[in-house]
Specification:
The complex is a heterodimer of chains A (about 250) and B (about 230). By secondary structure, chain A is α+β, with helices and mostly antiparallel strands. Helices cover about 35% and strands about 10% of the residues of chain A. Chain B has one domain: Fumarate reductase/succinate dehydrogenase, transmembrane subunit (3 helical TM bundles of succinate and fumarate reductases), CATH 1.20.1300. Chain B: This is Succinate dehydrogenase.
């Protein structure tokens, strides 16, 4: 296949970026999307040009690094797929593909398609922890937990913190991410001692980072590579409502 | 967390927009229930008696002023949130997903809300202002004497086609605003549960999205048709 790639190039967070167009030929349908960028980058290096900076790590769909906004969709056109798991059979010969970085004030561009997602780390630091006793290890399953709660907590914990929810949201809201991180702890007894403070602190940090607010369009859920559900956002809203009304 | 801090968080502001939104949802039901009497063929007795009651009952008047405060609160907080949401993405995407990941009306709440606000200004200046401060004629029905003949003002207004078209457009905006607004406010209050989502969706779409706006739109259309 022959493809035309329009890629966002930006030297650093201060400078203005622009699109640059590249023609890539001999693209196999079996290549992953990132492999096309590998091939293109080798060519750019051989030509003495600056290769395109993009994030990637595991290439197994579980690390959440490969943040590319492809033809208007976070991680491309396939549902519940990260960019590394998107394969070129999704495209046809002659297609033009526009690739942009996640765009949000809270995710400044470091270079080209690489963005700074440490805002997510700071949200987790604000409340994504539990109190545990030191000493001997506690027996597994010592605390009885309802199977449904355990499953819901596990589903929320599937969030890989990739930021697709923020990228897909028209308001750059981090509610789906924050709600998954709050839910996975709020649903389990181990998370209860800090429950109220956690919800309030994580939302306060989320606001401080400059993410927008949720208008319940559902774009985040549609684009989440791990299928995190909007029910988590409803749970976060309940947690914050109860904590906000009852905490001093 | 203090009240001021709580209502300054994004979720706190959204709870205020949702709560005022629920109040406005309740209002449109009452408003339609009363105004449907405009279509009664009694020369305006039912409607004018009802309008006089609403205009002179102290508790209703208190609610009416509260309603105006709530509309302004709903609009102002929504504008603040919209500005913050715009600032959260200073550089826009070159390619947008369109309707692939969300419905268009869920993304146009501010636009629909603004249309509704303009509609409300026209609507209030046309009828509410006339009833309270305008020079409208009075009529008497048996025991009820000397009540303002708002019925006549409404019929005169809806004799003009452009006003009827304006009202129908306003109600289309109301429909889309409420289809998303009711469900969205439920979600903001944490009401998202498999067992209740069906009924909440039904209320949002069929009651607030269809029955109420169509009910309102029928009034000017029928009055116009009656007079041609």
């Amino acid at each position: 296949m022959k493809l035309t790639l329009k890629v966002w190039r930006q030297q650093n967070s201060q400078e203005k970026g622009r699109f640059e167009t590249y023609q890539v030929s001999d693209v196999s349908k079996d290549m992953s999307f990132l492999e096309v960028f590998d091939v293109l980058n080798e060519r750019l290096i051989n030509e003495g040009k600056d290769p395109i900076a993009f994030d990637h790590d595991c290439r197994e769909g579980i690390c959440g690094m490969c943040s590319m906004y492809i033809n208007g969709r976070a991680h491309g056109p396939w549902d519940e797929t990260t960019t590394c798991q998107l394969h070129m059979r999704a495209y046809n010969d002659g297609d033009t593909i526009v690739v942009e970085p996640w765009r949000a004030a809270a995710f400044p561009v470091i270079k080209d398609l690489t963005v700074d997602r440490t805002a997510f780390d700071r949200i987790i630091q604000a409340g994504g922890y539990i109190s545990v006793n030191t000493g001997n290890a506690v027996d597994a399953n010592a605390i009885p937990i309802d199977k449904h709660d355990a499953d819901a907590a596990f589903a929320a914990a599937a969030c890989i913190g990739c930021g697709a929810c923020v990228a897909a949201c028209k308001n750059s809201s981090a509610m789906l991410f924050t709600s998954a991180k709050v839910s996975q702890l709020a649903l389990l007894p181990q998370g209860h001692p800090e429950r109220k403070q956690r919800a309030l602190n994580m939302v306060a940090q989320m606001d401080k980072e400059g993410f927008g607010s949720c208008t319940n369009t559902g774009a985040c859920e549609a684009e989440c590579p791990k299928g995190i559900s909007l029910t988590n956002i409803a749970r976060l809203n309940r947690e914050v409502l109860v904590a906000g009304l009852s905490s001093e | 967390m203090k009240w001021s801090q709580f209502f300054n968080t994004s979720i706190g502001k959204k709870l205020l927009v949702g709560a005022t939104g629920f109040f406005l949802c309740a209002f449109v039901i009452v408003h339609l229930a009363g105004n449907i009497s405009l279509l009664k063929d009694d020369g305006g007795e039912a409607f004018n008696t009802y309008a006089a009651f609403m205009g002179h009952n102290g508790f209703i008047q208190f609610l009416a002023w509260g309603l105006k405060v709530i509309i302004l609160l709903h609009a102002i907080i929504a504008i603040v949130l919209t500005v913050q949401n715009q600032r959260a993405r200073p550089v826009k995407y070159a390619v947008k997903p369109g309707n692939k990941t969300s419905s268009w009306y869920s993304r146009q709440m501010a636009v629909m809300g603004s249309i509704l606000f303009i509609f409300l200004v026209i609507h209030l200046s046309q009828f509410w202002w006339a009833m309270h401060y305008g020079d409208i004629g009075t009529v008497s029905y048996g025991a009820v004497t000397e009540v303002g003949n708002l019925y006549e003002v409404v019929y005169a207004g809806f004799a003009q086609l452009w006003i009827v078209v304006l009202y129908v457009l306003g109600m289309i905006a109301l429909s889309f605003h409420l289809i998303h607004g009711f469900k969205s406010a439920c979600q903001t209050f944490g009401l998202n549960h498999k067992k209740y989502n069906g009924i909440l969706n039904f209320i949002g779409i069929y009651l607030f999205g269809i029955l109420i706006p169509v009910g309102f739109a029928v009034i000017p259309v029928v009055i116009y048709l009656k007079q041609i």
